[in-house]
Amino acid sequence: MILTAVLALFGFGITPSTAATPITVAAAIGRQDSSTASVTGYVVGQPTATSTVVRSNYPNDYALALADSASQTSTSAMLYVQIPTAFRASYGLQSNPSLLGKQITVTGTLAAYFSHPGLKDATAFTGGGGSDPGDPPTPGDYYAPVAGKTGAALKSGLHTLIANQTKLTYDQVWNALKDTDQDPANTSNVILLYSGRSQSKTTNGGGVNDWNREHVWAKSHGDFGTATGPGTDIHHLRPEDVSVNGARGNLDFDNGGTAVAECPGCTADTDSFAPRAAVRGDVARMILYMAVRYDGGDGFANLEPNNSVNNGSAPAIGKLTVLKAWAAADPPDAFEKRRNEVIYTTYQHNRNPFIDHPEYIASIWP
Predict the structure, then answer these.
(1) Is the dihedral of CA 26, 27, 30, 36 positive or negative?
(2) pLDDT score for 70
(3) Is the pTM above the cut of 0.70?
(4) Alpha-carbon dihedral sign for residues 346, 352, 353, 359
(5) What separation in angstroms does the CA of 215 have from each of 63, 198, 251?
(6) Max CA-CA distance within the chain?
(7) Which residue intervals of 130-274 are DSSP H helices?
(8) What are the sequence ranges of the domains in the chain?
(9) Can you tell me the distance from the alpha carbon of 242 to that of 76, in angstroms, rounded to the nearest whole number?
(10) To which CATH superfamily is domain 2-131 assigned?
(11) Secondary element (H or E) of residue 42
(12) pLDDT tier at 17 (50, 70, 90 boundaries)?
């Protein structure tokens, strides 16, 4: 027993023999007797109150909810799991949003959490690779149709995948951006893309120092305006300071230029703009997403990156060589990955493939 306790303390997942055979979530809910058990279930969100479980916009890595079905929405059929510090990096939903819908097994004490049937003081977490067959596809399954494809065939296959989306109105974009671009350190704020400033969600508008909706693929490059489709696609719409948005205007992307006011690390000249280094890869992946998603087949222009600046109203944006270099130098981070997940699970139900698979860039644009 001493050896078991020591191993469990150091995270080796060894538990008393009473926990050897996993039980269902339903059984765990009915057995809130402070005994030790291993429970197998599907991750269905994060509990934030006794009767509230969120499936996106996770506030932290402290808890998750399990159910016997990945499609369960009734909190009465969920087990609230407290996540100890040692397991948060691997099983916290803010850090690992793709765990939603995955099957895991947790070992711990069957005791109330959030005044709700729960599991506390966990000593082991395992799994996370499998999903309920009836749940929406995981990112791995999402790309199964393009497995083995390269070049033009890969681009065409990805277009077919990501064109299956829910389209937002331009008004709906306001609230969506308050979710997708939420500051992880202050849930009342959003992070402005180019300037990096954290600003109150409520200060959206058109006034000085408000934030508004920046089209990363400038809407005049293809003349799509704010039409439902490319004009409202939140994979490339981001919050930005009104004056910084104006300074970028419809400039192409390239290195060089002089400093941009209110935008530390940004530069611009007469024909190009460069954001701060921390989001240059984000910008590149958004531009390349747009080139794959909008190919001229759905009533909008065929958007393509090229190696020019001064593209004007042509359905093109540059410079491709610079964008590729930016993508390589600034790989996807936790903020960008979470944003992609929230867009997929809550809003458009499609993904930016270059966040999930950065290697696709070189295959399509060698």
Answers:
(1) negative
(2) 87
(3) no
(4) negative
(5) 35, 19, 11
(6) 73
(7) 139-142, 151-162, 170-180, 242-248
(8) 2-131, 139-364
(9) 45
(10) Bacterial OB-fold (2.40.50.200)
(11) strand 36-49
(12) very low
